[in-house]
Write a sequence for this structure.
């Protein structure tokens, strides 16, 4: 039987080299570890690029969600019809451009990095949880927020300085803000789950 020091040294060797060496006959273990295969350098580069795209997509997505809400509310506070009409139209354009771009980068970078890294996209619980939260937020956006944005735009389209703001616009605006906050929470939660890799 190997002594305690041999077992300890074996455990340290396996931990350092990220392998699980086995005791041979007589309780001995290799003093010189066999060289471990290394993936080609291009895979490391590709993984880093895909991960960068993934993170960039998250920044664009959450940044657009928060900044458009800020400028939308800021323009509403002016009470000026022409400012509100212009800002509402700008929110729709920015939302489609940057939200879709963010979604594309998050999906491409995330699934691509998982494939290059040999990780199943639907394997670890934390990864699946992040994907579910991401999809949940997207469903709220496409199913509730986009229709509300279109209704707001129609309510103020063509208004000029001094025109009265229709009550419907304010009603849609309140709902848009509430559901916007609700849709943002799963995104933030998904980022935390992905970074912390919380076991689910």
């Amino acid at each position: 039987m190997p002594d305690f020091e041999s077992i300890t040294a074996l455990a340290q060797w396996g931990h350092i080299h990220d392998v699980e060496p086995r005791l041979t006959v007589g309780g001995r273990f290799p003093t010189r570890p066999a060289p471990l295969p290394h993936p080609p350098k291009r895979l490391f580069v590709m993984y880093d690029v895909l991960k960068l795209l993934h993170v960039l997509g998250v920044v664009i997505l959450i940044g657009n969600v928060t900044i458009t809400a800020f400028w939308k509310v800021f323009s509403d506070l002016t009470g000026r019809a022409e400012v509100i009409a212009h800002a509402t139209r700008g929110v729709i354009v920015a939302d489609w451009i940057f939200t879709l771009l963010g979604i594309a980068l998050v999906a491409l970078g995330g699934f691509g990095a998982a494939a290059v890294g040999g990780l199943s996209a639907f394997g670890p619980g934390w990864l699946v949880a992040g994907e579910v939260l991401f999809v949940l937020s997207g469903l709220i956006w496409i199913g509730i927020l986009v229709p509300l944005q279109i209704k707001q735009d129609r309510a103020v389209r063509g208004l000029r300085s001094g025109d009265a703001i229709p009550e419907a616009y304010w009603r849609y605006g309140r709902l848009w803000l509430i559901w916007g906050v609700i849709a943002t929470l799963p995104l933030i939660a998904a980022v935390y789950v992905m970074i912390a890799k919380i076991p689910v």
Q: What stands out?
A: Helices lie at 4-17, 41-78, 81-116, 125-156, 167-196. The mean pLDDT is 80. Residues 1-37 form one domain.
